[in-house]
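Please review the protein record below. Let me know how this chain folds according to its tokens.
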Amino acid sequence: MENQNADKKVLVTGASGGIGRAIAVEAGKAGYYVICHYNGNKANAEETFAQIKANGGSGEIIQFDVSNREDCKAKLSEMAKNYGALWGIVNNAGVTRDNAFVAMSGEDWDKVIHTNLDSFYNVINPLLMPMASRKNKRGGRIITVSSVSGVDGNRGQTNYSASKAGIIGATKALAVELAGRGITCNAIAPGVIDTDMTKAIIPEAYEMIMKAIPMGRAGKPEEIAAAVVFLLSEGAAYITRQVIEIDGGM
């Protein structure tokens, strides 16, 4: 069967593990050429790419710091020069620095905002002009990974909640700007997902969180990836400006 997505290139930031790895691997299974981003862990990014290749997919890895505007501009402008318009941008990379707000350091505030929120501009902006100005084939997909913390707020995560809420606002605004060009912009808001990040939660707190989830379990990275891959597809062409919460009914 012919691969209808073979000529469609998709960048996934934070593809070295967790949700980002699952998205990259599932996008590869769907036939996209997947550009797997990492910042500090090249070995993990290579493992992600190895999984893509093992499933018959194709792509490459790329390194840059999503919080560094000049680094992003240099690396992504070169990518745009080499590849032209990407089909999809999945802005997933993120960090947490949790603490009560009264005890939160300025460094922890800045680290989360610069990595999670500033990356919206740093990553998407250098790649947007080729996507928005393509003449013969309009369309494209921008998917941002927010969080239920950005929808509802979460104790001890004022910085994280602010960054993820900002992503939602930015995604909705950009969706309006790009709708006429057939480019969709949507946000995914995961709840508690079984990744290394959630493994760090102390058992007592984790038990309380599970009680707040009607489905009674954490989500799987592959369940987030499935939604992202659908939003990348041609079948999602009329879905834009949406925030899709994937949280087990939390």
In short: The first helix runs from residue 18 to 29. DSSP finds nine helices and seven strands in the chain.
